[in-house]
């Protein structure tokens, strides 16, 4: 039987017979067409070139052969280096991609066509973008495939083959052709259409919808849960707000980029607007919930609804909720920033409507809120050009509340206003002016101060707009203070002289019970000056209001021999808009710029001195005066400090301020003497029981650390009474029992402060305890950080992790890390990074923390962790983005440089994002943005200043770049003008710093816009001059 069994070799196909190649002469060489593809030429046929002479061309091709033998080759190749293009047939130069029989405007689509399928497309269609450079390319919409899991069946070893696929049966035919894979549909075949519901590969199957979106499952699941939550409880406010906020994550599911486009943002706003309206219908009668939903609705609708619809909706909302402070603040911002409807008088009347509505509410209006709205109003008046009125309002408020005579302190408000009218109309010197004594000490015999200097005469030879610019800017500077009837200059200006009738309505706004220190701090915000060095439970909201933000820079004081790290830290710290908890030590490093309000430093100094020397004033005003004088009048500050200390010899705050003054002036020995004497004057238990004493003690210790004397600082830490015992050598360390006693005292001070809810004392004591641990352990920063972390954990347990005192504690950690990095022989950047990231989560906008983090990461520019932490916390956090966060991001991007990856495009992108978000109505941010674009234009002009224009009249590339830079300046200006219709200073930039960008026609149009918006103009132009230039 074995002989009858067929062998597998018998099934092998018989070898095919090889055909002998046709015989040909040995000299015959088959000619191949190697002609390159040529682009289509003009349809006009050129005359043929004369035939080339030579034997190669004289040889005739035999008629009975499809080829001929060319022994010598083409002589034209030696001549031209290629074929003679005149001899290439015409059919090779036309019709590329066309199909014979079809119109010439139809071509083969080479991108989609295959060997078995031809696709026809219009010849003039838009070219398809490349996959890698297409910005708008979305993710593939094809369904994902997965391999089918093969059953674990044992393989039959007796088989002669191993099946590659067990998912289905393989089809065989009679032919023995090699398997070519999955058969494709051929347009020439008769097979039916393939089933789109089945994959082509038998070993795969389509993923289910759930498996396909596994990456997005958490986002979709959360959306479903929120929808279910709002359906089950339609009055759940947090559920509605979370659902509406979650729509951005839902919109980003199919977006390849993290940032939404303009159309995406508009679509998101429409979706959220509809959801807010649905929530308002179902939320019920809860007033608080309705107000929160209306806030979100009006915020989203501002970007989609037109002004008329938005204004009508605002009026309906305020009729329904007339006593909501948050809604009124949003409405005031809408009225002030609405370009189409803004007019100065109308906007000012809306502010008074706000005061009337809120004051008649069931609980009245908070004092802090009243001052916040008044700050908004006076800032709008100031920026609209009515600077004399704005300053006079604050002069009147300070005189009326802080310098009121004792006899009028208990009188009724109406009677007090009548008495103040007599004071104002006498035109005696007022607060801030030369020889001013204050309302309580003034006399009718006091001589009014001299008036403003005379203005220059009009020069008729100058161009009209140039003359307007000079005269307007001169009047703005010289007519800064409120005028009097006795002034010879400005007497013909109805807005320059301020009467009591102009101020009476503003005096009625602030109640008599308002704390004086709160009014004074509001005045500092109006002047765009730094806040007072005090930490309270709730910081006033006006300091973070984008409309009231200021541009300020610190006083740079680092020495040339300072380390590279300290230089980097100082550079990063000089952000134009800062967010921090002000301390006495930080206050004496501020710049105190007055450019925003154009006030002379003498005016502010006289005002501060008058208030600081008032018997009823607080010591904190005297401290502020010394810090201001150190910045503007360093030669006078020593005399002023002694004057204040003679009046208040027991003030620890003033002694601390005086010591800081001497330290900043470089008088180290004098500073040590002041600190030591002040500490020795107090008992130890009393000194450590109040924040002022602990701050004085801390300044004394840090003064030694500032001079890089850790041993001296160690001895001061164990000598809280201000006297250091004599030691044998300067390097001698305190004994262990002395250190233990100091640690016990500081620990007890912390516990006592926490029990008494004196959190500022707890923060100062913890900082001193951490320094003691650090210096006693030979500079082990890990041990010192444990002391800081203990207080941080306590704040977290008491739900105070984001309080102002917790932020003050975070700044103390940053100060310690700064010293450690600058003086330790070995520093671990990872350790510093870990500590800072933990506090940045709580305070992502704090400029001190961000600056320290950036300085620590400056040596690791490749990793770019600063951008990462800011995207994670500052710019994409769950909390509202503060202006200081945007300002630091722009500042950081500006100083990084192109080597580190920062360009003008990245800076411009940050400006656009900031002005589209929190800074949409911030004059400080828009002015900085415009200054940036002007600077970019100047750079382009300087780069190509020696280039000459082309002779053919066409613009060269450098001219195009300059034109683009000019266009960006104009676009930025007009965008800012749409958002800041009340800000005259911003409009005047087109006449001053950007005057070379705008022509006469454009500036005349801007002049008319200022007139339409009722902005204050000192110089009026003739209508005929305007018409001639427009």
Summary tags:
single chain; 1030 residues; mainly alpha; two-stranded antiparallel ribbon; two-stranded antiparallel sheet; globular
Number of strands: 4
Total of helices: 40
Strand order of the largest sheet: 1-2
* Percent strand: under 5%
The biggest sheet, with number of strands, parallel, antiparallel or mixed sense and barrel status, is: 2 strands, antiparallel
Structural class: mainly alpha
Approximately how much helix is present in the residues? Answer: 40-55%
What is the rounded Rg?
40 Å
Envelope shape: globular
Uncertain spans? 23-62, 137-141, 167-192
- Average of pLDDT: 83
Ends: how far apart? 115 Å
How would you describe this structure to a colleague?
With 1030 residues, the protein is mainly α. Among the domains are: 217-305, no CATH class; 938-1029, no CATH class. The strands form two sheets. The protein has a two-stranded antiparallel ribbon. Helix 10 runs antiparallel to helix 11 (367-383), helix 12 packs antiparallel against helix 16 and helix 31 runs antiparallel to helix 32 (847-856). The longest helix has 23 residues, at 957-979. Mean pLDDT is 83; it is low at 23-62, 137-141 and 167-192.
What's the structural blueprint in terms of helices and strands?
Layout: H1 55-58, H2 75-80, E1 106-108, E2 120-122, E3 145-147, E4 204-206, H3 209-212, H4 217-232, H5 237-251, H6 262-282, H7 287-301, H8 307-320, H9 325-337, H10 344-359, H11 367-383, H12 387-402, H13 413-425, H14 464-478, H15 500-507, H16 516-526, H17 564-573, H18 584-587, H19 601-612, H20 619-632, H21 637-647, H22 652-664, H23 668-680, H24 684-687, H25 691-706, H26 710-717, H27 736-755, H28 759-776, H29 781-797, H30 804-823, H31 829-840, H32 847-856, H33 865-874, H34 883-896, H35 904-916, H36 923-943, H37 957-979, H38 984-988, H39 1000-1012, H40 1023-1029
Antiparallel strand pairs: 1-2, 3-4
Helix pairs in contact: 4-5, 5-6, 6-7, 8-9, 9-10, 10-11, 11-12, 11-16, 12-15, 12-16, 17-32, 19-20, 20-21, 20-22, 21-22, 22-23, 22-25, 23-25, 25-26, 25-28, 26-28, 27-28, 28-29, 28-30, 29-30, 31-32, 32-34, 34-35, 35-36, 36-37
